[in-house]
Design a protein that fits this description.
globular; about 250 residues; Rossmann fold; four-stranded antiparallel β-sheet; 10 strands
Length: about 250
């Protein structure tokens, strides 16, 4: 459902994403890791058509990001890191607005609003303005907006930011329930959180993909080498940085 081939993105002479290739199929939950400035958010913005690639090919649900941007936008739910919302809107009105913006109408729109309200446990805040909601609720409102049209592809940038520990656990369970029939790519700085929910890890270092491996394989290798999952990932990131410095 997601295919990235030799994708690069430059800001003037600075390379933010460097010749990255990977694919994500239906039913996969893939965690996206990397240090600050590694290029994770840039690549997510490229996939959602917000930023054009400087080179390479990106496809979402069979549609080319460059030549079919509107078709791609219909297929994705995107939660941004900073979760921009209409502050003065009441939550119920915001959900209806977002549903209508996605082309939903009538009974189906009402059904989707009811579903995301229940799934994100927003019942107690639907009458409030967004500005009156806590950070945790605002994050859940943003996720509800990204799911309102039942997209087959989810792009989530730091989706648990602002959630308390119980909400994080509930979020993991919810994402697992969503996975069948969907491709889910989510970015996080927290390896333990990503490993808990993902079937596979992608790790960026200075714009380059330095690791693409299943969590099960990494855990087995960590046990064999008397290492930790975190230790293996850090070693790979450091090795990639060293390779780049000597290239």
């Amino acid at each position: 459902m997601i295919r990235v081939e030799q994708a690069s993105r430059y800001y003037d002479d600075v390379c933010a994403v460097d010749n990255v290739s990977f694919s994500i199929g239906s039913g996969e939950i893939v965690g996206f890791l990397g240090p600050n400035g590694a290029g994770k958010s840039t690549l997510l913005k490229m996939l959602c058509t917000y930023l054009p690639a400087s080179s390479g090919t990106l496809e979402v649900a069979g549609h080319d990001v460059a030549s079919e941007p509107l078709a791609v936008r219909e297929k994705i739910g995107y939660l941004t890191e900073h979760n921009a919302l209409f502050e003065t809107m009441r939550v119920s009105r915001l959900l209806r607005f977002m549903g209508r913006a996605r082309g939903l109408r009538g009974e189906y729109l009402d059904q989707r609003i009811a579903w995301v309200t229940d799934a994100m446990t927003l019942g107690t805040v639907t009458g409030r303005r967004v500005s009156e909601c806590s950070k945790g609720f605002r994050q859940r409102i943003g996720l509800a907006c990204s799911l309102i049209h039942d997209p087959p592809v989810l792009l989530l940038d730091e989706p648990t930011h602002g959630l308390d520990p119980l909400q994080v656990v509930a979020f993991r369970d919810f994402i697992r329930e969503l996975a069948p029939g969907r491709a889910i790519l989510f970015s996080s700085h927290i390896l333990a959180e990503v490993a808990e929910i993902s079937s596979r890890l992608l790790v960026l270092q200075e714009g380059r993909l330095c690791l693409d491996e299943t969590v099960a394989s990494l855990k087995a290798r960590a046990d064999k080498e008397n290492n930790s999952l975190e230790g293996l990932v850090i070693e790979r990131v450091q090795a990639s940085a060293a390779e780049r410095s000597t290239a």
